Amino acid sequence: TQLLEQSPQFLSIQEGENLTVYCNSSSVFSSLQWYRQEPGEGPVLLVTVVTGGEVKKLKRLTFQFGDARKDSSLHITAAQPGDTGLYLCAATQAGAGSYQLTFGKGTKLSVIP
Amino acid sequence: GAVVSQHPSRVICKSGTSVKIECRSLDFQATTMFWYRQFPKQSLMLMATSNEGSKATYEQGVEKDKFLINHASLTLSTLTVTSAHPEDSSFYICSARDAGAGDTQYFGPGTRLTVL
Asked: In this predicted structure, what is the pLDDT of residue A31?
């Protein structure tokens, strides 16, 4: 079973600051997703990246997929209290023939007003 | 994005009873759905893969006789927790794979099960 290492596990920052969350593995992924989950709710898909080197932007969120498709990052600019939540990266392994997602342990982000 | 619903959102039951949780894809057909379990402050743990028209595939350590999965149609999968005990209390989340959207998985809102 592939491991997806996500860091940091916890992050508490002031409103207006920038932050980056990392997701790394030794395995190659066919695709990688970033989700955001609030307490008592299911994960909500933020973005899917499939091409090595791909960069996607979603308002103040920037997602990058590594050239080798083994790692990804999520960067938030000028964080706001509404960004508070659990951020999860998840990936499907390349060539596995399975659609199963492997999840990172998550990053719990708190943005303090 | 695609919508996946779960019912019920919360259930409290007595020890020894069985509880059925439904997962529906509302605007797409899903040949594959997944069931996850999430403990407080932890990430999602895959329990099983539900395949339409065939038997579910369970992850190691998940008892198939305790967690019965039925995927009778392309829009519905059910998870039945049989003879529930307090240690089965958890947050259960399903997801559905949308083959028409690059195999993206969309998640339901989850079901909070509390076994007394």
From this structure: 86
